[in-house]
Amino acid sequence: MRALIAAAIGLAAALAVVLTVTAIGAPPGETSPKPLRTTVPEHP
């Protein structure tokens, strides 16, 4: 029973954080036009 209560509290806290961030909104700014490298370039 304690585990269920702890899980419910954790879920409520996570939901509160998500709603707070959503209410505040994303910070102003622009994204970079340069793509990010996701792999290591191969050596010739």
Automatic annotation (TrEMBL):
Superkingdom, natural source: Bacteria
Region (Disordered): 25-44
Name of the molecule in the record: SPW_0924 family protein
